[in-house]
Design a protein that fits this description.
The complex is a heterodimer. Chain A has 10 helices and 12 strands. By secondary structure, chain A is of the alpha/beta class. In chain A, helix 4 (about 115-130) crosses helix 6 and helix 6 (about 150-160) packs parallel to helix 7 (about 180-190). Chain B has 2 domains: about 20-295, no CATH class; about 405-460, no CATH class. Chain B has helices at about 25-30, 40-55, 85, 135-145, 145-150, 160-170, 405-410, 415-435, 440-450, and strands spanning about 80, 110-115, 115-120, 130-135, 175-180, 190-195, 200-205, 205-210, 215-225, 230-240, 245-255, 260-270, 275-280, 285-295, 300-310, 315-325, 330-340, 345-355, 360-370, 375-385, 390-400. The longest helix of chain B has 17 residues, at about 40-55. The termini of chain B are far apart. At the A-B interface, helix 2, strand 7 and helix 3 of A face helix 7 and helix 8 of B.
Chain lengths: ~250, ~450
């Protein structure tokens, strides 16, 4: 599904990722854990194609093709979804409108017919019911005045409406209490299927109690330092990242 | 009736020699057959206007008030002052801010001007309720000069303003709206100005009076549209008088052609418990300036002045306003937001003056601009001057480019860059458009904004 090869990325002239290798198979759930400043968010942004993240060497292959030349909207339409650590507030744009623009933009890209308002509402109602999102959240402007939990739930709603092949969750657990964490994890788990790949990026192990990964990778100093099974997360929880940051220094 | 006003005096100094002063030549011959020749008092206003305009000349950019808007462009064209004949040209469609054919929309009275001249054949008065008159200035001069004498030249009295002096000298069209005591109008009145259908550059000097008697209520839509390709100049003066507890809401849509120069000044006197609101949507014109001077002249008086300006190319849009809180417990609220592309330029000058007697006044003024291009420019100057000690006032101004984080967020959801930018522009303007408090008019304004947006891939 996703293959990252020898990726070097600079931001404002400073190298953040220094030869990162990562391979995610179809249907797998991977977790990337790492200390602050290790390059976790940079990795998520560079996969999504954000401006200002300069790839100086290496490549990112999605379904076998390089995506480095694709615009963020093209990557989204190809099936890559990034759930933001800090979802952005967009005053004046109703959440429903935003979701419909998003779904129809992706459908246009894929040469599919756009959904009219009624068709879209039907799709949305179903997702909303599954995720337990309140109607009120749909009518309000995108993320404006949402609590931390509501913002994250809105990310998961967008994800479930867009049904991406690859979902990257950037620190989705930050700022969530345990109830919100369960709801969000439940939403992610619902989307788990053999055709879909999930990459969970997190600082803490606790999210992985709810979204159980097939593989755990440790990111420090801009490279994957170690890869293991889900037990690696527990080890990190116990011993911290010192071994890896020290090791790489 | 004279309005207490304490403007800081700074006469507009002459910079233009008389032989090159635009319109000076026309003014010399204007005495031949002007409107209201038989009314001595009106001829006095005209004559003082001629003298004052020649003394003052065009406002120059060394005047604080005109620092950012240069009227030298007026000298580029040899404008002919429009006469009733110029209004008598074929008009295919009378533009409306409302989509045609929709029967759900409010149908009120409509007064149409072409090249500045009233066109009875295109206008309709059938829906005016009892107690409301809406008539072209020429008709009022003939039939009700008494009403005119009581109101014309009573609010717009600052003799140091060249463009007012010019309007005084040259007024050649306009209308009078009179709403009798206690009359509450249900449907908005539409005033439609169609410009540019001419063989030569025309100048037009409308003088409009709006007289709202005690406890009356009305909504107005004032729509300026450029249709033909000719250059034209419009210099409008509106005198707006609100009796006790009257309410007037004016929705301006300035969609002039890119050959047009539009200078409009609104002088409003708001008495006890009365309320005046205006929304000014500026979309067109080569150069426009929209001045509003409000005197909150009775306890409990309030005004709400809002606007949105959307400019591209080399468009220049100036909103200049001053609110005088003269009495206690008066309220003012101002919000202007704009989007500037290419080399366009906008000016916002706003001043709220709270006079000594105006205790417990509340004045709020905000101006925000989104710049879509590095070459676009906003000059903004919100000011507060407070002489009372118990007041609640705030002001602020901000400008910035498109929020790149929000843009990336939308693009990461598959929304193409240009469509995402459009949504962000709409999102930015929503705050001020929501202040249009008549749903049908708000929707029409939103349509205008949507049409203005840069073309986006895939947008229907």
């Amino acid at each position: 599904m996703l293959e990252i090869k020898g990726l070097h990325v600079s931001v404002d002239g400073k190298e953040i990722l220094k030869g990162l290798d990562l391979k995610l198979g179809t249907g797998e759930v991977h977790a990337i854990m790492g200390p602050n400043g290790s390059g976790k968010s940079t990795l998520s942004y560079v996969i999504a194609g954000r401006d200002g993240y300069k790839v100086t060497a290496g490549d990112i292959l999605f379904k076998g093709n390089s995506i480095l030349d694709l615009l963020p909207e093209e990557r989204a339409a190809e099936g890559i979804f990034l759930a933001f650590q800090y979802p952005v507030e967009i005053p004046g744009v109703a959440n429903t409108t935003f979701l419909r623009e998003s779904v129809n933009a992706v459908r246009r890209y894929r040469g599919e017919d756009e959904l009219d308002a009624m068709q879209f509402i039907r799709v949305l109602r179903k997702k909303v019911a599954e995720l337990g999102v309140s109607d009120d959240l749909l009518k309000r402007a995108v993320n404006v005045g949402f609590s931390g939990g509501e913002k994250k739930r809105n990310e998961i709603l967008q994800m479930s409406v867009l049904e991406p092949a690859l979902a990257v969750l950037d620190e989705t657990d930050s700022g969530l209490d345990i109830d919100a964490l369960k709801i969000v994890s439940d939403g992610v788990n619902r989307l788990r299927d053999p055709q879909r790949t999930t990459l969970v990026i997190t600082h803490y192990q606790r999210l992985l109690d709810y979204i159980v990964p097939d593989y755990v990778h440790v990111l420090a100093n801009g490279r994957i330092q170690r890869t293991g099974g889900k037990e690696l997360a527990l080890e990190l929880e116990k011993n911290g990242y010192a071994a890896f940051t020290g090791e790489a220094a | 009736m004279a309005m207490p006003r304490l403007p800081e005096k700074q006469p507009e100094m002459s910079v233009t020699p008389e032989n090159t002063l635009p319109f000076a030549g026309n003014l010399a011959t204007a005495g031949k057959d002007p409107l209201g020749l038989e009314l001595d008092w009106l001829q006095d206003i005209r004559q003082s206007g001629v003298v004052r305009y020649r003394d003052l000349g065009l406002p120059a950019i060394n005047l604080e008030d005109w620092k950012y808007t240069n009227l030298l462009a007026l000298g580029d064209m040899d404008y002919l002052t429009a006469t009733p004949d110029h209004g008598d040209v074929p008009v295919d469609v009378v533009p409306s801010i409302f989509p045609t054919g929709n029967n759900d929309l409010p149908s009120g009275a409509r007064l149409v001007f072409v090249n500045g001249m009233a066109r009875a054949d295109l206008s309709t008065m059938k829906d005016l309720p009892a107690g409301v008159t809406l008539e072209p200035l020429a008709q009022v001069i003939d039939q009700n000069p008494g009403l005119l004498k009581v109101h014309l030249g009573q609010l717009a009295i600052d003799t140091d303003r060249a463009m007012l002096a010019l309007n005084n000298a040259a007024m050649n069209s306009g209308y009078v709206l009179h709403v009798a005591k206690g009359v509450v109008m249900e449907n908005p009145i539409e005033i439609i100005h169609i410009g540019g259908i001419a063989q030569q550059p025309l100048a037009c000097f409308p003088r409009n009076l709006v007289i709202m008697e005690e406890n009356s209520q009305a909504d107005m839509i004032v729509h300026h549209v450029g249709v033909g390709g000719a250059s034209y100049f419009v210099n409008t003066v509106n005198e707006i008088s609100l009796g006790q507890a009257a309410r007037l809401r004016v929705y301006n849509v300035q969609d002039e052609s890119h050959q047009a120069i539009n200078i409009t000044a609104n002088w409003a006197n708001v008495t006890r418990d009365a309320s005046y609101s205006s929304f000014n949507l500026s979309l067109g014109a080569r150069l426009s300036r929209f001045e509003t001077y409000v005197a909150l002249n009775g306890t409990g008086a309030m005004c709400k002045l809002d606007g949105a300006y959307l400019m591209r190319g080399q468009g220049h849009c100036d909103n200049t306003l001053r609110i005088d809180h003269l009495k206690p417990d008066t309220t003012s609220s101002v919000m202007f937001k704009g989007v500037l592309d290419d080399r366009s330029r906008a000016v916002f000058q706003g001043k709220i003056v709270v006079h000594r007697d105006a205790q417990r006044s509340d004045g709020q003024m905000h101006n925000k601009t989104m710049l879509l291009s590095d070459k676009a420019e906003i000059d903004t100057k919100p000011e507060l001057e407070i002489y009372a000690d118990d007041v609640k006032c705030a002001h602020g101004a901000a400008s910035g480019h498109v929020d790149e984080t929000a843009l990336f967020y939308m693009r990461s959801r598959g929304i193409p860059d240009d469509l995402a930018r459009n949504l962000l522009i709409q999102s930015f303007l929503a705050e001020v458009l929501e202040r249009v408090n008549v749903d049908t008019i708000g929707a029409a304004m939103n349509d205008k904004v949507t049409h203005w947006l840069p073309v986006a891939r895939g947008q229907i």
